[in-house]
Amino acid sequence: MTQVPLRPAVAHLPAYVPGARVPVGAAAFKLSSNENPFPPLASVVAAICDAAQDVNRYPDMYATELTEAIAADLGVDPAQVVTGTGSVAVLNHVLNAVVNAKDEVVYPWRSFEAYPIAVALAHAEGVPVPVRADGRLDLPAMAAAVTPRTRAVLVCTPNNPTGPAVRADELRHLLEQVPGNVLVVLDEAYVEFVRDPDVPDALAVLAKHPNVVVLRTFSKAYGLAGLRVGFAVARPRLAAGIRAASTPFGVSHVGQMAALASLRAKDELLERVETVVQERARMLAGLRVQGWTVPDSEANFVWLPLGERAAAFAQEATRAGVLVRPFAGDGVRVSVGEPEATAVLLEVTESFRR
Ligand code: PMP
């Protein structure tokens, strides 16, 4: 039978595996998707309910009010901000705006699982560069992987799933070595959780380097993962290109209004982030007391480099009531959530100790 052939790149795409979901009624902690453990604020729910009145209309295509609020919050020009259906979609738009067929895109690995998919869908060739044994990105190796065919370098900072963030001197060296016609994407989905003082302010880096794009999201610190709102910050010319390559009406009216309400409640939401940061310290300390070697984390998750035992550990954790995210043969990522969840997790890690 004659069939419509899939693009070979699509037929061979690696799967994006979503974190395990909590079965309805199950008493389980969901630590599998780096979500915010707190329920939405009442003010955000009110904004969502109000916005629901208008869903028979298309949303503001360019999310004007939200874009202006993000720009004011970050101290940039609104022309530099492009919103989209979560930062994962914005990444696709960024690549589609700059990458030509057969260009190379350098990215760290293991890192965010959307990268190889986004690169393949952009008709580009991925050049994965191994992350160091300590979970840090190997920026010198990434710079060395740049060739005349390279069009973009993806920098995940903090790196999902290993946790460390790129430091200022490392990034400075990378940007010195990468030619100005190669885009450097700083994926900062977890930036609000960073406490390492050596991590640079990406917006200051962008002010100096026109080839930089910063990706951010309302999914993590702002707790809106279910509404899909992310954005890029870039120089206006690049931002206009990303906007042109974006899915029309990508952010719903409900999402726009919820993100605006979240920005208004920023201080309260960042207090919640601080409790997660403190819980992260407790989780890391508890693991290290048990003898685990785990990378420092600047994000809302920690990485257990379990190698071949990753899947078995995840099963054990599920039995104990915590859903975690295994990466077969490599390790397990555990999101930081409620203190009760940390307690259960540490019981599992204690029984699983090497
Ligand atoms: N970047 C990184 C590094 C992530 O871990 C994630 C979410 N897992 C995203 C981007 C995408 O987040 P969202 O699409 O929800 O904004």
UniProtKB/TrEMBL annotation:
Which terms are listed as keywords in the entry?
Answer: Aminotransferase, Pyridoxal phosphate, Transferase
Give a GO biological-process term: L-histidine biosynthetic process
Residues with N6-(pyridoxal phosphate)lysine modification: 220
Named cofactor requirement(s): pyridoxal 5'-phosphate
Its Gene Ontology molecular function terms? aromatic-amino-acid transaminase activity; histidinol-phosphate transaminase activity; pyridoxal phosphate binding
Q: Which reaction does it catalyse?
A: an aromatic L-alpha-amino acid + 2-oxoglutarate = an aromatic oxo-acid + L-glutamate
Pfam (any one): Aminotran_1_2
Show the Gene3D superfamilies listed in the entry: Aspartate Aminotransferase, domain 1, Type I PLP-dependent aspartate aminotransferase-like (Major domain)
* The enzyme's E.C. designation: 2.6.1.57
- Segments forming domain Aminotransferase class I/classII large: 29-344
* NCBIfam families xrefs: hisC, PRK03321.1
Subunit info?
A: Homodimer.
Q: Which family does it belong to?
A: Belongs to the class-II pyridoxal-phosphate-dependent aminotransferase family.
What is known about what this protein does? Answer: Aminotransferase that catalyzes the conversion of aromatic amino acids and 2-oxoglutarate into corresponding aromatic oxo acids and L-glutamate.
Q: What is the name attached to this protein's record?
A: Aromatic amino acid aminotransferase
Native organism: Cellulomonas cellasea DSM 20118
Q: Which gene specifies this protein's sequence? A: pat
